[in-house]
Amino acid sequence: MQLADCVWEINKKNSNSRSQILNGLKGHEYDFIFCPHESIRSAAWVLQLKSKEKIGFKKWWNFFVFTKRVQKNKKLPDALRQLSLLQTVSIDITDKIKNYSGGVPEWASMSLVNEINKTVHPLKWQLKQPVLFLAPGSVWATKRWTRDGYKKVAQEFGKTHTVVFVGTSDERELCASLQEELPNSLNLAGQTSVLDLLFLFKNGKLLICNDSGAMHVASAAGLPTAAVFGPTVLGFGYQPWQTKSTVIEKKMSCRPCGKHGHQVCPIGTHACMKDISADEVLEKARKLIQDPSH
Ligand code: SF4
Description:
By secondary structure, the protein is of the alpha/beta class.
């Protein structure tokens, strides 16, 4: 199934990469540009491109960038907020968003994910059921729950489950260090594509993770998820988008402290994560396994 005709991958740390891609994009004329990103930099890009319609979220300053601007509905999960840009061209989406009443609607389930059920993935035969996935990484250091917490949770679940660590190649070291202390566990960090993860998650019992990409892949796969939130909050719209989920978080006046979290805690304590005990996570995770629809 082809989802996109073309994907431009930007290396954000490399200014040459940014200008090369912008120059490439400038070589075409478009019918529509939808810009779900709200930064001034993205708006500056849109301004330089040729398109009959340019559609983005309404900000006080961006009236000269877009031909149509959509008021962002903060009550919607972010997946639907982004789709709401299509209201400007689709009555169908307008109706669906107007009638949204919570949870993941049938129409939003991914046919791509359903296709995965038909695939026989080589990893299928290596994982002894039941499988518990742990994704201890995050690009942002403050969004990571403690290594000790993940270790304790893995030790407990390792008594009854096959524990599998997953993550990106940057998280391979963290996952490997945990896996070394848990001889019966597996480390697949850096070895799985998004499609591999979708397949694996479709065959798992539970994921324990931070507010990270793995959480969203699990939601797409319908894998029950216990997510530990620190510097970010559910109101940002990036909660696990499924009913079989639970979030473990502390009420603290400093939360949220940034849209993405930080590499270093601004107040130096990182208490939003450090104060969450392994017992709290274990209790919520076990409840979720017993009753995924709670
Ligand atoms: S400022 Fe508060 S919310 Fe942000 S990382 Fe530190 S403890 Fe967590």
